[in-house]
Amino acid sequence: MSLASRLRTPALRWTAAPAAHAAAALWPRPVLAYQRSVVGAPIVFGVARRFYSQNSRIVVENPVVDLDGDEMTRIIWQMIKDKLIMPYVKVDLKYYDLGIENRDATDDKVTIDAAEAIKKYNVGIKCATITPDEARVEEFKLKQMWKSPNGTIRNILNGTVFREPIILKSVPRIVPGWTKPIVIGRHAFGDQYKATDFVVDGPGRFEMTFTPTNGGEAKKWVVYDYEGGGVGMGMYNTDESIYGFAHSSFQMALTKNMPLYLSSKNTILKKYDGRFKDIFQEVYAKNYKDAFNSKKIWYEHRLIDDMVRGLWFAGCVAVAQALKSHGGFVWACKNYDGDVQSDILAQELTYLARYQPHPPGYGSLGLMTSVLIHPDGKTLEAEAAHGGSHPHTHAIFRPIRILSSRLPPPTFIGTVTRHYREHQKGNETSTNPIASIFAWTRGLAHRAKLDGNDRLLAFSLDLERACVETVDVNGKMTKDLALAIHGKKYPQARTLLHHNGVHKPDRRAAATYQVGLRSETVEGFKLERGNGYR
Question: Where in this chain does the record put each Isopropylmalate dehydrogenase-like domain (predicted)?
Fold first, then answer.
């Protein structure tokens, strides 16, 4: 039985537990525990770490792949492992350092090795990484401008990235009716992220050629005749990957019991985007139409123009289709569209809250989960949804900066470079760790489901709940959320530094209600009074 189900069970009797007094010293609010009378089973209640302690860690049968990252998120990543994961979970972490220096030293082989490890062990948990531009190449003296590690991993795993907001009741939404999450499925293969692009410095012809491996006649297309310098690009996708994208999207919609929309620009890219539309329709008609009808949900293809209204003058983003509903749908996007729209929906524009009464979207990119799921449903990579630090991400802010030069750069992009620069100077920062914590909980939860490990699953859910309650119940949060909720007059005293932001959920979990369970369920994990958190 899930924790939520137990909390709804009428047989539960709430009482002020004696052990609650000890926990009250750790967390400044009244703490309740409950007990459940079960015939033939002892009553287990009180405030303690449920199922886990530093002296009795949860044993995980199979390994998890740990992919380290860069800059501020790398620092937070280590803190999460040290404070929230490893003291309570005994798991074999297959470690891969995807920091930009190590990727350069290994000629990016470490990224490929990490992706192959995820395929082998089925679960990977990834920290945000740098995708270098010209400035980063110069900064780190790189051998070359390495491609996005996220793109490399996604191409090897051939999966779909699903991003879903972490909804906090205390964070206002620009559309109050958004009571349900909008799940964005990003086709994480090919397109711009594995494209070959180049610069030409003079007149010439750009041609594309396809040469069949069976010895057939080569096909050639003239793309453009340059009269001077310019740029060019060639990109691709495959039927196999698009079919996998379709199956993953339909399965996610059925799992969430939500309608599914596919967006494309097939009116312009009649062959390229038209292939996506045709394959989705084929897969839906052959495999999922009856199941969708039985659940009274639906599938539709929409032009990307119809799904996205674009940027408002104030800098907030509206999703046209989303504004007509309470949320609660799955949006299947091509690779680049999914990258941009999920970031916008989560809102890296949270800092604009100081100039408007309500923040856009769901509040912060630090409140977004991201999982890459293989079509077989078995292999999963979880990561912080703010992903990699990349110059393209800054482009969506350019019109707003032109309108107001007083606006600071976005505070929560990729590896949170601005905070890292302050950290290097020895200054305090307030970096939101929630998305990185949820990367660990979602990855461990998937490991738990594959292994049938109920204790690990309960731990993951408890840690997620502790994060949410730290903000919603106790009002402790990092600066980005304080700005979203209170505007620029946020209470400084209730704003957490990044190291406190990681520590607070741990202490919050100390006051988690102890669930009454049968003795065999908690054997080896039952804590005596005084052996809880320190």
Answer: 63-485
**pLDDT, tens digit (0-9, with 9 covering 90-100), for 141-195:** 999 999 989 889 988 988 888 988 877 777 766 556 666 778 889 897 889 988 9
What element of type H or E holds 152? helix 149-157
CA distance 488 to 270: 47
Q: Number of structural domains, the chain? A: 3
Tell me: do 152 and 295 sit in the same domain.
yes
Claim to verify: residue 295 and residue 403 sit in the same structural domain = yes
Contact 441, 465 (CB under 8 A): no
Q: C-alpha 288: how far from its chain's center?
A: 27
**Comparison of pLDDT for 528 and 118, the residue scoring more:** 118
Rounded Cα distance, 257 and 242, in Å: 22
* 163: β partners: 184, 370
DSSP letters of 360-371?
STTS-GGGEEEE
Same domain, yes or no, for 13 and 145? no
Report which DSSP code applies to 353.
G
Same domain as 286, residue 258? yes
For 315-357, how does the pLDDT look when each residue is reduced to its tens digit (9 = 90+)? 334 344 444 556 788 999 998 888 777 766 655 333 333 333 3
Here the CATH number for the domain that contains residue 382 is 3.40.718.10
User: Of 177, 206, 233, which marks where a domain is finished?
Assistant: 233
pLDDT score at 468: 84
How far apart, in Å, do the first and last CA atoms of the chain sit?
29
Helix axes 454-472, 498-510, angle to 10 degrees: 120
Res 201 pLDDT > 90: yes
Q: Under a CB-based contact definition with an 8 Å cutoff, are residues 198 and 345 in contact? A: no
Helix, strand, coil fractions of the chain, as percent rounded to 5: 40, 20, 40
Residues 96 and 34 in one domain: no
Using an 8 Å Cβ cutoff, are 258 and 329 in contact? Answer: yes
DSSP code string of 435-456: HHHHHHHHHHHHHHHHHT-HHH
The pLDDT value given to residue 89: 95
Tell me: pLDDT of 52 over 70: no
Considering only CA atoms, which of 200, 262, 170 is closest in space to residue 470? 170
